[in-house]
Structures are given as C-alpha cells and as structure tokens.
Amino acid sequence: MEIREKHVTTRDELQQENTAEPINKPAALQQRSRKRNILVFSIVTAVNIGLIILLATQLFTPATKSPAADGQGTIPSPLIGKAAPDFTLQSLADGKQLRLSDLKGKMVILNFWGSWCAPCQQEAPALQKAWQERLQQKGVVLLGIDVYEDSSAAHAFIKKYGISYQNVQDTLNGNVGQDYGIRGYPETFFISADGKVLARYGPFTEETLDIALKKFGL
C-alpha cells in the first residue's frame, strides 16, 4: 500500500497567505460609490452657494421705500410706538462702550450704515450737514451704527466724509440690526426722549432728510 506524505504548511507559507492583497471590489460597485460621492458633493456645494447668494442679497440690497402715508420714504415697523431695543456697543472714536438707554432724555436718531453700501455713501454728506447745522445745537443725538465690516473700513469712511457725530460698531453677527429688523442699508430710526421708536426711514437725500427733521420739529 502506498503511503502519501501529509503536507505541513510552513510559517513562510502562512506569511505569504496573510500578506496577499485583499480582494478588490467589483468595478461596478466602485463606480456606483464614486457617483454617489460626486452627487453628495454637488448637493452640498449647491446649498452653500445658495446660502452665500442669499446672505449677499440681504447685505448689499439697499432699503427700499415702502408705500407710506406721507410719501417721504418711511418704512413700516412693528417697533413704532414701542421701546427701542437697548444695546451696548463700542465707540469707533475712543473704543468706549456706549449704551442706548444712557441717552434717555434726549432725542436719538439711529443710522445703520456700511462703507460698502452705495446709498450709505450718498446720504452721508446730508447727515453730516444736518448734524453740524441743526441737530447738535438742539441737543439731538445722531448715532451711526456701522455693520458687517472691520473698524479700519469704518474709520476710512468716517474720515472720507468728515463725519463728526458719534458712531459705534455692531457685533460681528449684526445682532443690533437684527433686533431692529433691518432688511437693507441704510436705515434710520427716530427715537423719542423717553426711548420710544417714532419712525423708520430708508435712504435719505438732503431733501427727504430735511422733510423728516421738520416733521419732528428739528
């Protein structure tokens, strides 16, 4: 009878088996995986682009003049007749904190602006002229609130237009503008001496600013 010798697997053979390359996925499965990854990437990219466009539209679209009873650019606001939202912001002049409620007892005109905003650039000379010739003599506070930019851009704007009234800078996220329901720039709020919102306006020309000031005895 023939006796067959039993083969014993050696350690070298085991190492060769363990180091063998793994079985590759079928080509069709790999292709489907690549297509799925491309689809997910495309969707995420499209969503991000949409969000950027939406944000840019909100930031760089100037306030529009809504139909108003006096026809002078007033914008409806749920804040009218109510207490103006309080805030504490840093002064662009000296870095000190300025709190709106500390100004009670004086009429306050809040002007939301940005150096990147073309209508803000157009109305700046009219605001400065009104401040110099009318408002400061009557004890009215004209307070500019710069939005969505660094302080260097704001300082350059103030210097360019010779602005001498007070200006502060909103938070990075524009929290104060959100509290006031800002939808475009510039926007201006008239606040009474007892802290109530009297009116909300869109972009001013020298003529429409004059009409608004006269409306409040200024």
Automatic annotation (TrEMBL):
GO cellular component, one term: cell envelope
Primary location recorded for the protein, binned into one broad class: other
Domain Thioredoxin residue range list: 78-218
Region feature Disordered, mapped onto this chain: 1-25
Keyword Protein transport: no
Species of provenance: Thermosporothrix hazakensis
Membrane-spanning segments: 38-60
UniProt GO BP: cytochrome complex assembly
Protein name, as recorded: Cytochrome c biogenesis protein CcmG/thiol:disulfide interchange protein DsbE
Pfam families, alphabetized: AhpC-TSA (PF00578)
PANTHER family in the cross-refs: THIOL:DISULFIDE INTERCHANGE PROTEIN DSBE (PTHR42852:SF6)
Keywords associated with the record: Cytochrome c-type biogenesis, Disulfide bond, Membrane, Redox-active center, Signal-anchor, Transmembrane, Transmembrane helix
InterPro entries (UniProt xref): AhpC/TSA, Thioredoxin-like_sf, Thioredoxin_CS, Thioredoxin_domain, Thioredoxin_ResA/DsbE_sf
Basic and acidic residues bias spans: 1-14
Domain of life: Bacteria
Coiled-coil ranges from the UniProt annotation: none
Compartments in which it is found: Cell envelope
GO MF term list: antioxidant activity; oxidoreductase activity
